[in-house]
Structure formats: C-alpha cells, structure tokens
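Hey all, quick one. A colleague (J.T.) asked me to put the flavin-adenine dinucleotide job into the tracker so the inputs and the structure tokens live in one place instead of scattered across chat threads. No bug as far as I know, just bookkeeping. Sequence used:
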Amino acid sequence: MIIIVGAGLAGLSTAYHLSGVPYRLYEREQEVGGLCRSYQKDGFTFDYTGHLLHFRQPEIKALVEHLLAGQLQRHARKSFIYSHQTYTEYPFQVNTFGLPPEVVRECLLGFIETLTKPVTSSGPMQRSFKDWILDNLGEGMAKHFMVPFNEKLWKVSLDELTSDWVSWLVPKPELKDVVNGALGIKDKAFGYNPSFLYPASNGIKVLPESFLPGIRGVRNGMELMEVNTKRKRAVFRQRADGRVREEAYESLVSTIPIPELLKRCPDFPQQLKDAAEALRWVSVSNVNLAVAREQVSDKHWLYFPEPAYPFYRVGFPMNFSPALGRSGCSSMYVELSHRPTEQLSDEELITRSRQGLEQAGILKPDDELVVADVKNLHYAYVYFDQHRARAVPAIVAELERRGIYSIGRYGRWEHTSMEDAIGQGKRLAEQLRTWGAQAVPA
Ligand SMILES: Cc1cc2nc3c(=O)[nH]c(=O)nc-3n(C[C@H](O)[C@H](O)[C@H](O)COP(=O)(O)OP(=O)(O)OC[C@H]3O[C@@H](n4cnc5c(N)ncnc54)[C@H](O)[C@@H]3O)c2cc1C
C-alpha cells in the first residue's frame, strides 16, 4: 500500500499516475488543491494570490491541456514595475525606458561594467544572491530594482541567500537587449512567462479538481499526526471528530512541508530533525479586495520595489478572467510578505494595502471597498541558503532510505511551480510503479 499525504498538485498528480497500484490519499483540509485553490466571496473568486500557468515541460503542458480541455485561455503577459511614479515593463533589466534619465544611465553603466569585470569564481551554493545580482546585472539594476524588491519580499539581507535557484527565474540579458530596453525598442519577449494560461472561469482551483475523476477518492479532513518510520505506520486524525486511524504502508509519499513531516517522525535521527527545524522561509499575507469601479488597472500584475509601498506585488484577477467578479467592479490581490512569527492584524493589512494602492493612484479615496478579506500563506517562499543546501539533500536521502518520498514545493523545499509539482508527482508515481513491479527496494 502507498500512502500519499497532501492533496495539493504534487499529491494529486502522484495518485493520478499510480493507476493500478493500491494507494490512499489523505488531505488535512476539506477540499483539495493546497496552495492552488480558489474561493468565492460576495460574487468574486480569488486564488490564494494569482496562480498563472506557464510551461517548460511539454508532457506536463499536454497533460494540463488534456485535463482542462476547452477551459484555458492564453494571455500575453501585461506585468509592470511601478517605481519613480512610472510604470515600466517587467522584467526590469530589459525595460528601463521611461525611468528618470539618471536611473537609466546608472542601470546601463552598471550592466556594461559586469561584462568586463571578472565574475566571482565561487559556485552558486557559495555565491550570495546579492553577489549574483551585482555580477550579472550590475550596481544600477541592483540599486533601482533587484535589491529593494527582493529585500522587501524575502525580509532578509540578500547576502544570506544563495544563488542556486535564480538562473531560470532571473535570466541574464544580452547587452543589445539592455540597450534596446533603455531606448524603448522592443523586438522580443523576455522572462520565464511572456505569456500564460489561465482558466476562463472559476479560478485556478479547476486544475486540482480536474484530477479527481482520474483518482480513487481522497480522504479529506484527515491530518497526518505521526509516522513510525521503522514499523512503517502512519497515524491520521479526523479533524471533525478527533477519531484516529492507523495505516501500514510500504511507501509513503509526503507533500507536506519538511519541518512539519519531521516533527511527526519521533524515531527520525535527532540531528536531521534539528536541521529541518532550522530551515527558513517567508510567509505571505494575501489581501483580497474588490471595489465598485470598473478596470482600476488594465494590467495583469504589478511589482513594487519601493519601501513606500507595503506590498511587493498586486494583481488584478478580473483581467485574467472577467468571470471572476461582478460587473462594474474590479478585484485585486495584494501580497505582503512577513516573517512567519510576525503577522499584522487583518485590519492593519487592509488599511495599509488600501493606503498604498491610493498612493500608487490605483484606488481613489472615494472608492467603495465591496470585499476586503485576508488569507495567510504560512509557508510561501522557502529560503535557499547555506543551511538548506546541506540539510535538504541529507533529510531527503534519509527519508527515502526509510521508504518515505518527500516531494512538492515544501517537500523538496524549493521554488516549485504548479507545473513542477505535477511533474514531480508523475515521475515519482512512475518510479513507484516500476518498483512495485519489481518489489520495492530496501
Ligand atoms: C504566493 C505564491 C504564488 C504562486 N504563484 C504561482 C504561479 O503563478 N504559477 C505557478 O505555477 N506556481 C505558483 N506558485 C507555486 C504553486 O502554488 C505550488 O508549486 C503548488 O501549488 C505546490 O503544490 P504542492 O502539492 O507541492 O504543495 P501544497 O499545495 O502546499 O500541498 C500540500 C498539501 O498538504 C496538505 N497538508 C499539509 N499538512 C498536512 C498534514 N499534516 N496532513 C495531511 N495533509 C496535510 C495541505 O493542506 C495541502 O493540501 C505560487 C506559490 C506561492 C506561495
């Protein structure tokens, strides 16, 4: 028997691809989807901040297009950075046109300097994120976007983060593209998501729900409480009535955060449990707003690097899909990060978001808020730091030695996208099926 813990995209995809192999899928919440969920409030649909589909793996793209046949729409990305009271297109490094001339000059000169300066010889694990930015983009872009934006998001000095995750998220441009971007000449699309797919209606939750006809039941409202890794037994508690159920397993697939899993494994080596406790991450407050005015913005989402604004990003769901709200209105998701132990009250978050949106000219003082709702994403963005680089491979290897496969965004402790989570579930299921046919390795 294979036990899967967590019915987010990684767990659902594992179950979906295990066809024919006995499994049980347990989920703590009453609904599936994990981070990839949507909810309705007063005629508006919100995701747990914007979830947009972009693909690098053709097989996962084909799977999603099959599962959501006829339900997806493609959008050319309209994402911008708001700084110096100006909108410039994302990504910053190839779109400085429109900023004050002295800012553009600093960005250009700084970038040109990177082309002649010797690059730090250290590898991505040793090189800090800050040094990566300086080496690849230069002082000007560091000062005017990369450092203030990332320090606002990560809530930590960028010297403390490593650079082993940045290359596909933050591509290094060519000089020609940087110069064209400073002069406002456009000849190609940049970034990892120049266009994206999004469901025409009902929000991103249609994606996890599309797996359900292909899997045999999810045990919702069941929380993993304890795993005896030697005896291979997992204990779940029904959240509604506290009833406990014990399951014997051959393999256990965990998609819950590594620190949460190891807290529940009393017989796991203490040194690795301590290492899991020391993993760091940042949480996100997701403030969802709606106002009684049409098209407060014509963009999809905006980045805010300046400290004057409390949020790092704001998006407009009704510009992905008008069906996500009431006509004559606009909806917004506002993202503010915080250290996991330092959360503001909902009232404070809503007040600060509204003030920032007015200051940016997106809301007007007389705009009537028809929805103001806050969701906290406790685990949002994991830190890639020196500790993670040592701890995660050691923890994952020891788990696997005990027949536990930790996958997904927080199971691998990485910046997994929806596509990656689905891909990890698929690949693990295929492996487990092969091993099942041969007898599971020790
Ligand atoms: C702010 C933000 C924005 C994002 N935007 C995008 C985007 O635009 N595009 C994109 O591709 N990706 C985006 N992502 C990433 C995407 O959300 C994730 O990669 C994906 O949803 C992760 O799926 P998962 O199954 O690995 O984890 P999760 O979704 O976290 O699933 C884990 C599941 O385990 C359950 N669980 C936890 N503890 C227990 C327990 N003890 N017992 C039983 N069940 C338990 C949870 O309830 C949850 O359902 C974003 C992420 C964040 C934080």
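Adding what we noticed when we looked at it: The longest helix spans residues 418-438. The chain has twelve helices and 18 strands.
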